[in-house]
Amino acid sequence: MRLSFSEDDERFRREVADWLRANLCGEFEQIRFRGGPGDEHMFSGERKRWEQRMAEGGWTCIGWPREYGGRGASIEQQVIFHEEYARAGGPGRVGHIGEGLAGPTIIAFGTEEQKARLLPGIRNGTELWCQGYSEPGAGSDLANVKTRARLENGRWLLNGQKVWTSLAHESQWCFVIARTDPESVAHAGLGFFLVRMDQPGVTVRPIEQITGTSEFNEVFFDDAVCDAGDMLGKPGDGWKIGMALLGFERGVSTLGQQMLFQNELDEVIRIAQANGRGKDPVIRQRIADAWIGLRIMRYNAMRMLSGQQDGSLSREATAYKLYWAVWHRNLGKLAMDVLGPEAEVIAEAPYELTRLQSLFLFTRSDTIYGGTNQIQRNIIAERALGMPKEPRPARA
Amino acid sequence: MEFAFTEEQQMIRETAEQFLADHCDSAAVRRAMATEAGFEPELWHRIAGEMCWTAIHVPEAYGGLGLGYVEVVALMEQMGRRLLCAPYFSSICLGANALLLAAGEAQKERWLPAIADGSCRATLAWCDASGRWDATGVSATFVRDGEDYVLDGDYRYVVDGHTAGLLIVAARTPGSAGTAGIGLFALPADTAGVTRAWLPTMDQTRKLASLRLEQVRVPAAALLDAAATDAGAALANILALATVALAAEQAGGAQQILDIAVAYTRERQQFGRTIASFQAVKHKAADMMLKAEAARSAVYYAGCVATEALAGGVADAELAAAASLAKAYCSETYFFNAGTALQLHGGVGFTWEYDVHLYFKRARASESFLGDAAEHRERIAAGLGL
Question: Tell me, what CATH number does A51's domain have?
Fold first, then answer.
């Protein structure tokens, strides 16, 4: 157990920093520190171009194996990359769902043909992905998905509705959990489909959120077509693959998220220093608590990353989502309290919020999406602590 | 960067876990805590002689094993789990650390081998009854008198102060304030003019004492000479190292009381089900686990920083921040977990018979010792420029 980096790693750090300095400028200057949570709707054109610039420099998908276009970067190097990216003010990545979720899942479960066809678009920043899991009737009870897939003339036709799909309006692809066996219930009888978004059978409708903005969408499938070769695994594998993907969500990409958090906390501290609230003993306690919480989050992640790399969850990893979601939500409230009455004044009418106002409002979703705090606590108690499941009534 | 235990560290940890499970069960804790000394000499001999825990981070030149502070942290975590009643924290995490950071070569050669083999038990006395845990809490004084120093003053909350053989005491030059004018002295506990009294405490698993020094005359060689009479910074670092160790002990206790609570809820039946199957109970346990895991991350991080600090590779401010981070988080975590465990036990959690109260009381005592969470957060806020 040691904290210092090797000389090779420090060389790698300089390489990352040099590249970012030389490239995150000019037309990209305006997107520095932008596009994070609550700000994801901003500068989407510029951020797509930035994704491709990153790809040209070989800085997308660095943790992927070399044979799939990655760098095979070690955990240490990925940590360094995320640190430097955040330090330079790298914008929120539009390609993160492809790089962090779809890609690793395709690498783990896809055929060689699927890998060769689908991974380059992610790697090159030309094809963006979104996630089709939740439905109006399948939120916390995700296994209750009703979207159906039927095989007709050698291709799958999907019918149903997904919801809370971020980046759906920007994406070329969506990975969808749908029911292949109409008689099945719960975890059985599901398939994992890779669906092209640009087709008549797919309709995207933005959801206007409490921020007045629309990062999340509803996605409707009306006989949406999915070629037989675009199913991952076999009919019935959907739940297994879908859960493995969620394991990747708790992987190294969380480090990038933490660096965004650090930038947000730094901004709150600067404001507290400038407006005098940093002298208030209660505010001081809360800022220090936030600082401690974020540091610990980093070492939680390090311990998690030092464990399994196959998407399976170690004991400490089960608590990760609950930990960061609560921390981030509390930071949003702290930001408002540090601003005091000025927290009310928005950037511009009719309803353009400041960055910290967006943070405050948007972080209320952190404790809901990707498994609510209550579901997370069930997961921790049942999987990590071995406490028994609550008896459930038979499904109707 | 590597954030997992090495194989050797893992082995030390597992060996400690097994040893303590075998030799430090509830009955052993209850026997030791009922005595004034607070420990059983036989267990101490095994810890020092068989397990060599007292030698763990003492350099080989002074009869130690020369390992790092991560190993100390790993041991303290296990001791915390079992509420070990032994003068390990006082002798190693206060006494040995004081000598390592402030003593000169000859003093280290004189004292450290005996501490490392357990034949000498040391402790550190610095603060008075003011409840201030840093150098500002030092009110005892020293004056030079020919070839000697003369020490006067009172100390309170001295861990194992009534049983230690070697006292390391902080004192200040008359009229000095803050971190200025601090000297550290090593003196045998039976030095003339030293009065020691056991201070019976609510948490019986760690023993405290008060000391009175009246015209205590010690030779000049008793002054720890690496830090000499400007030992304010050294004292802060010694206390930071002790704080990291205490936080590790808290993290271990927080984990153990969680395990105890989960085991109980899985057995206890109400409404025809084990109460562990109720979400109201599970969610409490989940919150406890989240905190216990985060506490562990905090102390492993702090252990790494402390290892580097002992090797001279880390700025004082970084060690102080790491110690404060760990202590603030682990203090609240341990008390939260112990309090929640008591609640989850229901009525039996309120009894003397069940062990919950031992953890609950240790958690409370450890929370304030070396500074509570609020104090350490305040230190961090100051460090952030607020």
Answer: 1.10.540.10
Contacts of A100 (CB under 8 A, 6+ apart): A248, A249, A251, A253
Enter the ipTM: 0.96
Length of chain A: 396
Residues of A annotated as catalytic (active site), given as ranges: 249
With a CB-CB cutoff of 8 Å, which residues 85-144 of chain B face chain A? none
Q: End of a domain among A94, A118, A139? A: A94
Tens-digit pLDDT profile for residues B129-173: 998 999 999 999 999 999 999 999 999 999 999 999 999 999 999
pLDDT 10s digits, A212-255? 998 899 999 999 999 999 999 999 999 999 988 887 776 666 77
Q: Do A15 and A85 fall into the same domain? A: yes
B227 domain residue, yes or no: no
Distance of alpha carbon B208 from alpha carbon B369, whole angstroms: 11
**Residue of A273, A382, A388 with shortest CB distance to B274:** A388
Q: Where are the alpha helices (DSSP H) in A64-111?
A: 75-87, 96-97, 103-109
- Tell whether B274 is within 8 A of chain A (Cβ): yes
Tally the domains of chain B: 3
B151 and B111 co-located in one domain: no
Which of B297, B327, B337 to probe the A interface (max A CBs under 10 A)?
Answer: B297
Dihedral sign for Cα atoms in the order B259, B263, B269, B275:
positive
